[in-house]
Amino acid sequence: MTRPMLTQREAAAACGVSRTTIRRRREAGDLPGAVQDPARGWLIPVPDLLAAGFRLNAPAGPDTPAADSSAEHGGNHRQEHGGDVAGLRAELERLRHEHALAVAEAEHGRRLAELEAGHLREQLGVRAEQLALQAAHISDLQQTVRALMPAPERSELGSGVPGQAQSGRQSGPDRQESKAEDGEPSRWWRRG
Question: Which of 28, 44, 112, 181 falls between 20 and 30 A from 161, CA-CA?
Answer without folding.
Answer: 181
